[in-house]
Amino acid sequence: MTDLFAFADAKSRRDAGMAQAEQHGSSFAWRAYHAIEALAFNQPTVHVDDVLRQGVREPHHSNAWGAVWMRAIRSGLIERTSETRPCTRDPKKHAHRYPVYRSLVFGGRS
Questions:
Q1: Domain total of the chain
Q2: H or E segment at 97?
């Protein structure tokens, strides 16, 4: 049986860690968010490979990515789909599968 308090605590720590990573990587966070935003307005789906193609470089800590994607979701730019694909643009990712996001603003939708 899952302890609901432990799950809530884990989510809280995750969110705090992402906020801290975003704050410390503010230059990265700004560039990555605006790349996701531009892509969402110009294509129906967004994947990490698309963002890396825009010249966004790795943050100082890999957790900073999660904060940027969550910000884009909360702002209504994108939503997660059930599809995943490996990252092919960064060999350090070792073919880890990343979510494909659906644009909620492509073609003027909002």
A1: 1
A2: strand 97-103
Q: Which ranges of the chain would DSSP assign to H, the alpha helix?
A: 4-24, 26-42, 48-53, 64-74
Q: Which secondary-structure segment (H or E) carries 78?
A: strand 78-86
Distances, alpha carbon 61 to alpha carbons 23, 25, 28, 96, in Å: 11, 8, 10, 17
Residue range of the domain that includes 104? 4-108
Model confidence at 43, in pLDDT bands (50, 70, 90)?
A: very high
Q: What predicted TM-score, i.e. pTM, was given to this entire model?
A: 0.74
Q: Is residue 24 predicted with pLDDT exceeding 60?
A: no
Distance between CA atoms of residues 70 and 57, nearest Å:
18
Could you tell me if 82 and 19 are in contact, meaning their C-beta atoms sit under 8 angstroms apart? no
What would the mean pLDDT of 36-62 be, rounded to a whole number?
A: 93
Q: Are 73 and 18 in contact (CB under 8 A)?
A: no
Strand bridging mode 78-86 / 45-46: unpaired
